[in-house]
Amino acid sequence: MKNNVKLRNPYWDNIKFLLIIFVVIGHFLDYLTGSNRFAQAIYVFLYSFHMPMFLFVSGLFLKYDDKHRLRIDRVVYYILIGYAMKFGLFLVDLIAGGDPEWSWLTTSNAPWYMFVTAGYLILVYLIRKANPKIILPITILISLAAGYFDFIGDFLCLSKFLVFFPFFYAGYCLTSQKAEKFLDNKALKGAGITVIVAFAVFCFAFTDYAYMLRPVFASRYSYAAMEFPHIGILLRIIQYFIAMFSIVAICAVVPKKNIRFISSSGSRTLPIYFIHYFVARLFSAVDLQTFLVDKFSFAGIFMLLVIAIAVSCVLAIPVFNLPFKFIQNIITFAINKLTNKSKKC
Fold it and tell me: 63-69 contacts: CB < 8 A, separation 24 or more?
């Protein structure tokens, strides 16, 4: 275990921990976006880049070559965790007095990330020998065209799968060393910081217009469902443009050195992703978000940001990762056992 820790690059773990904090903040503020302009601005700003960047970093450390086989155990693990999260949320809504509907194949909330990642592991393995210079543009064209089809939505998380795949695949096509070298370009850094600052100003200065982009950044809908049937493809291109330069900007400001708790926490983002959503639901059930904003106005939003960061830090403690490691080890053991048995037969 110690050797594996030493092999990790703290720079990317620092980035992952920052991104998971953004995810948690977004989910905590989501319950206020119906009425609070400041929450709307923060929400749209974060959603413009945090998941594309998260998937880019995930793809960066997935490599298939002659020594690496398809990790069936990882595929099963992500699918199992996804359904565990779906079932947990179903129970929470049921206990809260709601009337939730169960679907095995349609997902509209947080578990989508698990299912999409499982699908990416398989797809990238299948196209691992193809020329990235051909495949990457094709994936972008497919994602742009997908918005014209109404049936592409939450079913099998297909819309998110297609829209975010270019980011995951772009990461897969690079090594961490090549990515760092590319991102170190001063002109590129300047462009990235300019774009992300300009978009942040737009979100906070013209919140009503910025919030209209929420369905675009959600990446769940067809262009018609977003009510942008004629300019939907242009908005998707703008989404890619903002996400791409935001990735550059975030990478430019994150420290590369090892920062004890932050760097180690970046290797344990899955438990944070899984558990925080239930915490956010609990807070919403007792109207904590609304209470803080009604009671303290702008300061209430700041308190929520602090709470979201605190929840992220608490869930990053290694003890919360133990059940996930246990499940992963059980699945890996079972898959290896079955694989070895089939080879003998």
Answer: 63/172, 64/124, 64/125, 64/128, 65/128
Q: Which of 61, 45, 28, 113 is nearest to 249 (CA)?
A: 45
Please give the torsion angle defined by the CA atoms of residues 150, 152, 157 and 162, in that order, rounded to the nearest 10 degrees: -130
Task: Give the Cα separation of 39 and 27 in Å (integer).
Answer: 11
> Per-residue pLDDT for 295 more than 70?
yes
Instruction: List residues bridging with 106 in a β-sheet.
Output: 155
Stated length of the chain = 345
Give the pLDDT band of residue 3 (cuts 50, 70, 90): very low
Residue 155: phi and psi, rounded to 5, are -65, 120
Residue 200 CB: number of other CB atoms within 10 A? 18
